[in-house]
User: Fold this.
Amino acid sequence: MGVTTLAGIERAARAHLPREIWDFIEGGSGAERTLAANREAFSRYAFRPRTLVDVSACSPATTLLGSPLALPVGIAPMAYHRLVDPEGETATARAAGAAGALLVAGMFASRTLEDITAAATGPVWLQLYWLRERAALAALVERAEAAGISALVLTVDAPRIGRRLRDLRNGFAIPPAVRAVNLDPALMAASHRAASGSSGIADHAREQFDPSLTWADLGWLRERTRLPLVLKGVLTPEHASLAVDNGADARGGANPGGRR
Ligand SMILES: Cc1cc2nc3c(=O)[nH]c(=O)nc-3n(C[C@H](O)[C@H](O)[C@H](O)COP(=O)(O)O)c2cc1C
Assistant:
């Protein structure tokens, strides 16, 4: 029998991957206290059973913002799946489809949106960062609609990337063979620039992400798409209300794995 638990998958992945890539995936920011707190909080979740109900025809199927799912589970957007598998996001899309789960492809996906949606048998959403280069954002949104993406997820908690000490120690940069192929290479160049004591990921975010983004800017994106818009990284009830008031259809309330 193969690997059967998440911890087993983690062990297998760690044994398989170069150290700096493992650190990029598993590492959090600072002393990784938020990361540890997240794990601890998650381990406290419990199901609350209701007994003596008819369970002969159970189905967890649901529809999320118009996307039908056999399972109410979504794969969070993660950049550059080809760091861990030569096929990258198309393999993830097939796996999500087989499980009946949602795939949220990252803006920094390492396969084209068209390849990802062609490989998918279920819904695919697209995550966006707000780039200083708004024209690139607008072009990607247009392309996403044409490629059959079902919703957009705007990450709003990353005006900057947190100090991920492992990446700084490793002088981490995305290897040249793995690229965010849906964007102009010039916009992504800093991600590939390795330097001792610095992180290409953080340098890139500082260079390309627009930290001046406010609620007032959301209308610009809302006007450019008919797709449902989800805000990722809204953590308080007040901001959840603001999100809806400002044109969002939903908001995700996770802190991003203690990585910011
Ligand atoms: C390797 C890796 C890459 C990620 N890349 C992105 C990204 O490109 N965009 C984004 O919004 N979030 C990204 N995230 C954050 C995840 O979407 C998610 O918010 C975070 O992992 C928290 O979920 P978890 O506690 O289940 O890990 C990434 C996370 C990991 C581990």
Notes: The radius of gyration is 19 Å.
